[in-house]
Fold each of these.
Amino acid sequence: MSEILIRALWVLGGVLFFLSVYIIANKALREMTERRVAWTRGELEPKILEYVNGKGERLGAALPPLGRADRRVVEDVLLDNGRFLKGNARDRITAACEDLGYVRDRMRQLKSSRWWRRAEAAEKLGTMKSPKAAAELIALMRDEMPEVRMRAARALGQLETRSSVKPLIGTLQDPNRWSALRIADILAGMGPEAADELVESFATLPAKARVAAVDCLGRVKSHRAAGLLIKLLSDPDRDIRARAAHSLGLIGDPNFTPDLQRALKDPAWPVRAMAAKALGKLGRPEAVAPLFDLLRDREWWVRINAAEGLRSMGDSGLAALVNAIDSEDRYARHAAVATLEGAGVLDQYVEKLVSADEKEREAALTLIRKIVAAERTDHLMQAASRHAQEKVREQLSRLLTPPEVKVQVKA
Amino acid sequence: MSHPKILVADDDSTIRRFIVTLLADRGYEIHEAVDGEQAFKVAESVRPDLMLLDLIMPYRDGFDVLYDLKHDPGTSEIPIIIMSVKDREEEIVKGLNMGAEDYVVKPFNSLELVARVRKILERENRRAG
């Protein structure tokens, strides 16, 4: 019995010993590899950066013969720098990736039986930005793994070639396989070329994809999409009308003002809300009056966006908000006060309570009395207890204290 | 100004090394800072002729550093170019309103960056007489 126990202890000891040796050796090997990579990077990086910054025609000519591990380091340096560069330096990185065979290697890796290798290869090809990879990446968008398909789509977006726009728009036709929002994100990053194609294919897109496409058109800020977006303000789908109004605001051309003013009368509140916000971005003075009227809308989101729109319009909009504090409509009063608070306008007036300029003091007193009358005093109460200047605190406390009610006692 | 001093403040070492190579090759004396705290300290001690400032950095963000540098009489005259991935209009306007000379959005064009640096340094040189 004791012999069996001793043998078991020996076996256990042996296993623990080999396990320790394995862990130590593995750690040492990893550290040695890391040091070697850092050393190689230190040696090669200056030559790579010199090339990227315009020295020499080919990177290959400036580098010593590269082993497999060295090739990986060079690829990492090129792609790390590719993240934050554009223009000539970026083009030289792409040329080096093609010249040194990285594009070819990664294209071969796209056919790997392991999905994560295909995904990694797609991602790297996107960063390399070589148009040579476009056809393979388009083919990869039919991969069985969703993650691989999405990385291929992102990589195509990074290539920024016209040939990659159509297949990306094509994915919008298939909402079961692709997230329209993520594809719209990719397309928005591709700029005006993507917008042109989207405008052309818009009529063929399914409903969900059309909403994402309208969003994308606004984010690209392409004037060439303006005609379509204005037409979509009359689309039967209220979501499309709302997103079209939002996108027109993003493009920001003041000539859209009359169309967006019409959208303020839309029966669907999301359209009115988006149109109000968009009009604020365009900043035309003729939009002040209709936005002021919209502060009485029955939907709170519309009222808040109308107030926000007025705030974005500068002095004329802010003056309208100050006037709205007198409004008979409780909702309009509250939306106006909330926006003035949020924009810091109220704080500016509080400061003016102790201004040396009498007119400024009067204006501040008038505004604060209006807010007290509108019964939206939370912000002022806070200022009355926390403001740095004692005089301001005193003034505010006086203004916030309700007048004493005199009770006549009959004898 | 024989070798103008440029401070590069960015927590991304790859970007720092790229800019150092780019500008050192053109004869500038480069100093580096790896975070917001260090950026302020190096700017105070080195008094660079120009500073390239990232916005997203550990300890103190770029806007914070910009504010302090512009409110310190010893450093308020240092021209600062903000370099950031933040590309929203509000951020660009905020940076310029806070006193930055220029705002470069990442990814950036390296030749454009060199031209901007050169232009600002030439103007400062003329101003100094």
Amino acid sequence: MAGASPPDSPISPHDVASVDDVISALADQSYLADEGLATAIFLALRLRRPILLEGEAGVGKTEVAKALAAWAGGDFIRLQCYEGIDVAQAVYEWDYSRQLLHLRAAEAAGATEGVAVADLEDELYDERFLVRRPLLQALSTTSERAATPTVLLIDEVDRADDEFEAFLLEILSEYAVTIPEIGEFRAEVPPVVVITSNRTRDVHDALKRRCLYHWVAHPSVEREVEILRVRAPHVPLALARDVALVAAELREMGLYKPPGVAETLDWAEALVLIGTDDLDPEAIEFTVGTLLKYREDQERARTRGFGEILSAVLGA
Amino acid sequence: MDLAERTLDRHLVRFAAALRAAGLPVPLVSTIEFGRAVAEVGADRRDGVYWAGRATLVHRPEDIPLYDEVFEQQWLGAIDRGRPATAPAPVTLLLDEPGAEHDDEGEPEAPGGDVLSVRFSRAEVLSGKDFADCTDDEMAELHELMDRLRFAGESRRSRRLRPTSRSGRLDLRRTVRAALRTQGEPLRRAYLEPGERPRRLVLLLDVSGSMEAYARALIRFVHAAIVGRRDVEAFALGTRLTRLTRELSTRDPDAALARAADAVTDWSGGTRLGDGLRLFNDAWGVRGMARGAVVVVLSDGWDRGDPAVMSEQMQRLSRVAHKIVWVNPLKATPGYAPLAGGMAAALPHIDEFLEGHNLDSLEVLAKAITRE
């Protein structure tokens, strides 16, 4: 959680006036968004809609939410989805042990004698026995903190099942949730919601319609060089360029898991660590494990030859 | 100003309509959303409008090229309204099957008890007959029988808990509720146990030329599976990979098959089975769809590609799938041995090798999918 420190950027996310505002505010958080992503984010902020980001693993979907949170300066709440996730883990649960203790204490004090069940119930289903899970937390931002909205990341929604998705739709369309024992919780300030999916299955159409959609693709070579320069400033420019070129070439080779931005960053770091100034086949051989995570992919690159790949992209 | 806005709105609606005509599903709410989005980014910049539309009208990466194409046409003002941007390739799949439904002049289906009994005996004869030897009329009847196949699906333990009467994990929520009725004494305790979920079923149908006689029948089987239970995915494997889950989830078989026929553009094309599997593994299977699933490959195993590719892809698939069932219509042929390059390469990675040449064998298959 970033705490309530004032945002670095002068503009609060809900007050952005143009797509360029988004680009520059995110750049302040070391996240370089292209125009497509920035437009989707801009619209999500202006229309107060969730944004659904789909794309290959490692293209920086989760990073978007983190950068948004750092920009907003409010809480960052993350809900990691998994199969079988339900209301008790995502929204709220009652603190049953405390409820039972409370009942026992009341009984010991003789306070339960002749008390109607309904009254006991009211006592038990009180907010102080409520355990707030991520989604409810995200709806609890009060209006004093409207300038620093909460960012809610619902990560890898494709891992959850359909039942949960339907439930999510309900919360996201109203930014409200009903707890039967208490009543409705409605967000005074709707959180900025980022949903990510690796697309292992299709997210339901109804949920997609509710969200602004953006497919996060691998970055262009120029953009990847910029990202490397911002995220790993100690990597020399020439090396960063070569790294981006090789990564782009590998993505064209039809590997099982083409390297994402996360991998290129790791790779560049690794190359610097072993003291590489100029990319050569041997340096690639030493560090290929940070870039290609499947044995078959490494085999394929090796069969083609690291030297060959290098000369193909560097034109040497 | 007002007039300008209204003209703009009309442009936007026209654009949405052009997308729809080109085959992109654009619900009305998305069009409204698009209008609001353009109002936010401003209509003066081409890129702004482009990305506003991308964020509100497109919901799948596959639709991006189509969107780009329509956007290009619209922006240049050179739209030919009413005509789809990409005319679907004319493919005749099951539409050439004869029968009352397709032929306006044809005799209507005769209902009634006496016909039923006749049909039953016909069913007995038909269920053992090789699909390749069936006449079109017989095929139509087989299709009806196929629609009656039921798929329960293999189940696995879910992480979702459900109430139970057996003692297991304590259900505190219900226990506290019950305790209220006994002055706070938790006399009656409630329990939970893990529920069960059907395993995902993934059907890969080979639609290459050598499978033509069978693919027509098997796609009906695939359709029956998709509408018959939840969590079923279907793909056509030819020279390319086509996901058919959406097209085939329409309950009406004829409408569903017509839509599937439109989607598959490489019907009866060449055979690149290994490459097709590779596409499936890359885009869907290994990424999660085939994980823990029952994968059924419906193919004769003819592959003109490199058997090494086939072997490698089957290996990848078997590492993530719960079970791989291979259905080969040729298996029933006397003297058939799975020696064809692709089939031989795939065999070591298959859990069950079944026939799929007639209705009886499909019933066996339906059971194999269900069996633990």
Amino acid sequence: MTDDVLLRVFDLVKHYGDVHAVDGISFDVPAASVFTLLGPNGAGKTTTLEILEGIREPDSGEIGIFGVRVHRITRPIKQRIGVLLQDGGFEPYLKVREILHLFASFFEHPLHVNDVLQRVALADKAGAFVRTLSGGQLQRLALGAALINDPELVFLDEPTTGLDPQARRNMWSIVTDLRERGKTIILTTHYMEEAEALSDSVCIMDHGTIIAEGTPRELTHAFGEETMVEFRIRELAEQGLAELADCGKEYRVDGGAVTVETEDLPATMESLFAWSRRQDVPLDSLIVRQPNLEDVFLSLTGRRLRE
Amino acid sequence: MAILFTFLFPLVFILVFGFLMGDIGDVSRATMGLFASSDLDREALDAAIAAAGTMQIVSFSDRTEIEEAVTAREVDFALIWDGARIDFLYDAARVQENAAYAQVASGIVTDFNLRRQGAEPPIRIDRIDVGETSSASWFSLVLPGILAFSVLSAGLNAVSGHLTAMKERNVLDRLVVTPMRPVLLLIAIALLRLAIVFISTLITLFVGILLFGLRYDVDWLRYTVCVLCGAFGMMGFGTIIALLVRRPSSASNIAHAGSMLMLFLAGVYFPIEFMPAFLRGLSEAMPLTHMANALRYAMGVIDMSEVEFWAINASLVGLALLLFPVLARYVVRPLRR
Amino acid sequence: MTDVLRIALTHFTTAIRERVTLFWFLVFPVFLLVLLALIFGNIGDEGEIHFEIGLINRDAPGGAVDFAAIVEETFERLAELGEDDTEPLFTLHRPDAEDDLDTFVEDELSALRRGRRAAVLVIPSGFGATVLDAIVSGDAPSSELSVYMTDSNVASQMASEIVAQILAEVDREILVRGGRYDPAIAIASEEIWLGGTGDETPYIDFVLPGIILMGFFVNGLFGVPGAILFNRDRKVLRRYWVTPLSVPRYLAGFSIGHLALCALQFALLYVLGRYALGAGVSFATLPAALLLVLSAATFLAFGFLIASLARTANAGMAVANILNMPMMFLSGLFFPIAGLPLVLRLIVYANPVSYLAQGLRSTLGVEASVFSLPLIVGVPLGWIVLSTVIASTRLKWDVER
């Protein structure tokens, strides 16, 4: 294994009867980077992560981690990783500080509890009972428990699901900060913006397999030099919509939202304005943007990342 | 689950207690061992023993044998007469029963001494039982208490338990936005619970009668009144608890804890007369005490004035009626955090 | 601090902080101990028991000795406040001078039937003459003093027994004064207490070990499955399993925490029993200490068994509630277990509490045990082994993912 790859997955498989949750995936995670598994619910991201965290056994496949190849994650390996579960509870009658002391006792070389409290911005809540914490504070506590052993590799399973925008942004800045400190992070999410904002590399998963991988830029540029034009319309008949095919390379309609792909922006804009006058339909909330990971996923699978 | 409880709990209760409590304090079914190594004053002794009651007497011919019989609990206590002294042997561990045996013992000694000197007791006592039921044992008084308790906990739990749990899980909020008025919803819940607890008391009662041969003279009208008023009244108490606690889940815990405490203090297990004065006052203040007495009256075990009977039931219903609208508002009120 | 000790501390702390747990495993045993000690400990003691008695004297005063008055005065004395203002044995309800005696008797009997009186005494008219006759002639008296009571009511039974005893004393007094009875040549009687300390076992010494055992029992039966199942269902345990913490180490910490809770229960109940209620038993012997530890361990294992048999926390609590009563009461802890039908006796023999209760009491010198030592230790150990085997195969440490 080369020096800059911290984790390598070889042909991981996990089946539950007829359901192929993880169907033979392989990928590399470079050190000191943020690696994201992106995909809709049920893609197999969490199952993959649980195998890598050591709480699920694969049917077959190997894991290369910290310089050794193993079939499953062992206790010594667990000393060096940190895990933020997708969902889990804490003892409601313990205080924040006591929770961190408890988790610290599981590891041979834990950090100081106060340092971790600072890092996850819970220092002022150190004496609060778990039952009194908000959703965002609980997630930061869980992150604190995941970082208490100063791990080289951190797993974050859907870290911002259910959080309000402010809490989400806090989490993002903590993740970026971790990467600055040289940590390696494996992240799963179904939020495209999150993948784009945080990742150094992305693996898009669907139905247990990897359907695309690369940096966010590489993935979106696979579209070529395309631009996306989006606008909203009210009800329109099929024939009227069909004429959009002439305006650009491709188009799709999703409820009241229309998206047109184009390689020639000026020409498309002219045809769209003409189309709008002809159909007597205004182009509401018109925007022009670059392709994103959602577009990538859609073009690969025909489905959206988020239902 | 809760339904299973309502039926199972009182049944297990009486099964366990019926057999255990049947004989406490009942000296007439006691067995006394007798070892007389001397024939001196035998007539007087035998007469005194016979006069002491309908105990079973088992004779022994050896001191060691009789001592072993006491410790092995083949006999409840023993009398040894050596011509000069009477010794009574007790198993030191039978702390709860020995008081009763000791009373019998001292009665025997007194009587024996009188007869021995040829003196007839100039005062004779005629014990007259004015009790309602002829074959009554202490357990026949306990059973109505147990039934009252199951009515109490069913009523309490219907509100501080069932309803509060629904509130906490926001099921109530969803039901409330339906066109049905909250009061009707409450009535529906109440009636269902009422039916369940009524049936469960009947089952418990019949099991008690079948298994333990208890005899009751049940006035079904009064019995039904007791169960209904008791259950309603307790729903009222449950409402008070639900209103006072911060979190709905605490309500059921408090109701459960309170009812257990009440169970011990309400004279169900042991008579109120045995409690120290300050506890007796507390016992009189508890609803369970009066519910149990009303039920005992309805089942023909004790006597009670009609006024008292109806007053008890009326106050229970009155409390419920008073609190029903409050309860309806509670159902609708948003959850306090 | 090591992980094991931290987990022990966590278990201990959360139990103390949760008010519900605190109530059932501390407050309730304390309450029960105090209540039982107050009630059963005082049967027969001065100033602790009290009866409402109706007393009607239908005899007209007159004659050389007013025997009826003697009887009345005896009861009056017993209705006076004792020293230190302790409550008297009786409160007497007697007719006033202008009351119609027949009506009054009917009222009193009514009150007796309603449980407002423990007994009603009626001294018949002509009583004094009858008694005098009996003394002089040496024959049985020709009229009787009526003691009305309710046989189904234990209090009434006891009251009538006490009344009978008092009257027997009055009898003796009268006979002594009448020269028909000489107390000097009366036969004395001795009470001999077999088993235990050779003296009458105070009730508190009998009940304190029982309550301590009950405390451990409740802790194991409810506290253990409650803690494990709720933590599993709330996914608290899941967070532990992604760390190097292993299940055996978690269990070790949990068990230590549990034993610490039992120690707290013991300390509280013992101090209360010893210094507030006057218990004399000493647990400071090795056999007693070992039995206490064995008991705590047995109920801990039992708790694991229950946790492994239930799928959810609520189901676990339901199982615990159903097992609670038979196990606690069909064990000789509080009630004597002689004379039970076969089915129930089988439960007693299978119940580890029966052996632990007997073993503890006999080690403390409170009573002789009917079970042999191998059984006392063997049956609980057997349950520990059985529970451990079943729990280790069946207990799931995480909910379905």
